[in-house]
Amino acid sequence: MQVLANPRRFLGLANAILPWVWAATAIAFAAGLYLALIASPPDYQQGETVRIMYVHVPAASLSLAIYVLMALASAIAIIFRHPLADVAARAAAPIGATYCALALITGSLWGKPMWGTWWVWDARLTSMFVLLLLYLGYISVWQAIDDQRRAAAIARIVALVGVINVPIVKFSVEWWNSLHQPASILRAEGPAIDPSILWPLAIMALAYGLLFLSLHLTAIRNAVWSQKLKAEHLKGVSAR
Amino acid sequence: MIRALAAILRRDLVLGFRQGGGAAAALSFILAVLVMVPLAIGPDQNLLQRLAPGIMWLTLLLAVLLTAERIFQQDYEDGTIDALVSSPYPLELLVCCKAIAHWLGTGLPLALLSPFLALMLNIRESSIPVLLAAMILGSLSLSLLASIGGALTAGLRRGGLLVNLLILPLYVPVVVFGVSASLAETTPQGPAPSLLVLVAVALLSLAIQPLASAAALRAYLR
Predict the structure, then answer these.
(1) How far is A211 from chain B (nearest CA, A)?
(2) Closest Cα to residue B106, out of B5, B25, B176?
(3) Chain A: which residues have CB within 8 Å of chain B?
(4) What pLDDT, in 10s, does the model give residues A196-206?
């Protein structure tokens, strides 16, 4: 991690692996979507509608994981003062927010035929909506504060205070009577899904993760480049 | 150090009551809402009674949120924050004291008045003790969380927009369990579980608020 603290070394690494990561993302999505939409069996109760799960579940899990990543990056920024930690957290937020919104929207589309309602204020849905609000709040902190160093300090606190929502989302279906179904994969008794559905789900999750990695590295790279541009611009201004 | 904390408490309480801010402003807002809500719902008294706890919590929440930004905004403008940060006492303790002062000046008076205010909403008399207990606990959490928001946005020009977006997610558990305590009268366990969760939320807020607010204030003075 300290190795990557040097922006130039990070750029070198990012430039080297980014094409491969994009390629892996494309392959994973191709394989995952084929398995999910065509090759996997329909559910015995829900029929073909179950295929929304392959889009909904990875988006939801990843949005949770990305928030944890943001909080971790903020903690690293506070403790180790790693120069790229704030950049990493800031870059991850829009991607996580989009995944969260995607999960909410696809969940709503799935809920109408399955539960008969677009939305219900149960624990899981409410806490996921709160997660979206936390993401939007984090992004708007960076927009609202002009001084970037102050914005970074405030944003770190916002990310860390909000991380308490993540276990609430995860365990909401256990702690409350929720319309949303309880955990089927990460349980003490092991996964409760048949492998023919579990594997496409896992590959879609991998695809979403690789997409996040590609976008994230690209965003951090852009941020480092724009910092360099600003520095060059200032150098040019002061040289005149 | 006790004298420093007492000084902060007295200063904030006096300022709050003197300028017509704090409890008075929040109270006027609540009265306005409580007059309008029965008119907006219509003549159905049963409906009003069922909605009474929720409406009370909503108005308490909005009233605390309204006064939230003022906690640190004025201090930022007149330089009190500089004095607090550079004082020899731990900043965490000082900001916790400010938040408690806000609670004593705004949240707690509103909570204690809530039984009388709820009568305007035709609340059942049997629900009033639970409502009072829940409001006292909830108002503590609301004041503490609001002061986190106030510290995070002190000195921002458009801070009001941001405060609501940042604090609202943290308010959700308080409102959810506050209302569920009032609605739990008819269940076998009663309101005790919800009230205990409110205690937990209040303790958690008490633990987090000093750290978050102090870090936020230091960020503004770097």
Answers:
(1) 28
(2) B25
(3) 126-127, 130, 133-134, 136-137, 140-141, 144-145, 149-150, 153-154, 156-158, 160-162, 164-165, 168
(4) 888 899 999 99
pLDDT digits (tens, 9 = 90+) for B200-221: 999 999 999 999 999 998 887 7
Secondary structure element (H or E) that encloses residue B140, with its range: helix B128-153
Q: Which residues in chain B have their CB less than 8 angstroms from residue A79's CB?
A: none
Q: Which of A161, A163, A164, A166 to mutate to test the interface with B (most CBs of B within 10 A)?
A: A161
Q: Is B176 on the interface with A (CB under 8 A)?
A: yes
Q: In angstroms, what separates the C-alpha of B116 from chain A's closest C-alpha?
A: 30
Do residues A122 and A180 touch, judged by C-beta distance below 8 A?
Answer: yes
* Short-list A52, A70, A232, A220, CA closest to A156: A70
Binary contact (A134, B169; C-beta < 8 A) = yes
* pLDDT tens, position by position, B30-77: 888 888 888 888 888 888 888 888 899 998 888 888 887 777 877 887
CA atoms within 13 A on the CB side of B33: 19
B93 pLDDT higher than 70: yes
What ipTM score was computed for the predicted complex, to two decimals? 0.83
